[in-house]
């Protein structure tokens, strides 16, 4: 009887179409025709070198230039240096390059940071996260090829954002020196979210170089 045929093949096709439309999601099939399990760490690993880092190199601007434009016209800065297709209620996030001297370091906290003087006046212009705990989702949010609607729900989207931080710490930040950082040079490629307060811009790195002790 045609009306009693099971409907799971149709559902499987629908799932397959959804995954095909979302280029960043894994495409391996699960057992029994089910959708693959959501694995944000594996997803980030698969796109980091192929898409994330090349995107940041192409999109990032010098921090002073980006920050000046962000303060004057956040939407213009977002269109040029960030994700112009972000959710309307989300803050702007920008890809940046910065280079300068470390003038302060906080390595006692798990959310360790270094403050970097970029313009040579002896004062910090940006704060760079060096992990192991990394706050925010700036790396995810700066990418214009990743959108909230690509994900099943807010929880998955949030976990995907955290997976960027985990991957950055595992592959980049965990290899950085922790002692006698003040006075060393720092070169960073990363992203930061425009804040509303007077705190230093908090940059999450995808690449970091810290120079030798002075």
Key terms for this structure?
214 residues, alpha/beta, 6 strands, disordered N terminus
Question: Describe it for me?
Answer:
By secondary structure, the chain is of the alpha/beta class. The protein folds into two domains: 1-37, no CATH class; 40-210, OB fold (Dihydrolipoamide Acetyltransferase, E2P). 35% of the residues lie in helices and 22% in strands. It has six helices and six strands. It has helices at residues 8-21, 40-59, 63-72, 74-81, 138-141, 154-171; strands spanning 61-62, 93-106, 111-117, 126-132, 185-193, 202-210. A five-stranded mixed beta barrel has the order 2-3-4-6-5, surrounded by four helices. Residues 1-32 have low confidence and may be disordered.
Give a short summary of the structure.
This protein is an alpha/beta fold and 214 residues long. The chain has helices spanning 8-21, 40-59, 63-72, 74-81, 138-141, 154-171; strands at residues 61-62, 93-106, 111-117, 126-132, 185-193, 202-210.
CATH architecture of the largest domain: Beta Barrel
**What proportion strand?**
15-25%
Determine the structural class based on helices, strands and strand pairing: alpha/beta
Work out the radius of gyration. Answer: 20 Å
What's the CATH H-level homologous superfamily of the largest domain? Nucleic acid-binding proteins
What is the residue-averaged pLDDT?
A: 86
The residue fraction in helices comes out at 25-40%
Domain unit count: 2
Q: Largest beta sheet, briefly?
A: 5 strands, mixed, barrel
Uncertain spans: 1-32
The H/E string reads HHEHHEEEHHEE
Question: Distance N terminus to C terminus?
Answer: 82 Å
The level 1 CATH classification of the largest domain is Mainly Beta
Query: What is the CATH T-level topology of the largest domain?
Result: OB fold (Dihydrolipoamide Acetyltransferase, E2P)
- Tally of separate helices: 6
In what order do the strands lie side by side in the largest sheet?
A: 2-3-4-6-5
Q: How many strand elements? A: 6
InterPro entries: TM0957-like_sf, UCP033535_lipo
Keywords: Lipoprotein
Pfam families: DUF2291 (PF10054)
